[in-house]
Design goal:
Strand content: 5-15%
Largest sheet: 2 strands, antiparallel
Structural class: alpha+beta
Number of helices: 3
Mean pLDDT: 95
Bound molecules: zinc ion
Number of strands: 2
Radius of gyration: 12 Å
Number of domains: 1
Shape: globular
Strand order of the largest sheet: 1-2
Length: 62
């Protein structure tokens, strides 16, 4: 089990895999960072992919 915090606040989420962690983050983003989610929709797919890759690398390095 790994624990990694949200990249926007101090909330922490524990999961066995990055996919599990990301699913928890998605719900957290939608409820706590709705404004950020709205902005993210205007960003390019590349930026979204980069975020995913960065977060996955961070999770895997824990
Ligand atoms: Zn957060």
């Amino acid at each position: 089990m790994k624990t990694m915090s949200c990249d926007l606040c101090e909330s922490e989420f524990s999961a066995e895999t990055f996919e599990e962690w990301f699913n928890q983050m998605k719900e957290h983003y939608m409820s706590d960072h709705a404004d950020f989610m709205k902005e993210a929709q205007n960003k390019s797919k590349e930026e979204g992919m980069k975020w995913m890759a960065d977060m996955k690398a961070k999770f895997e390095s824990l």
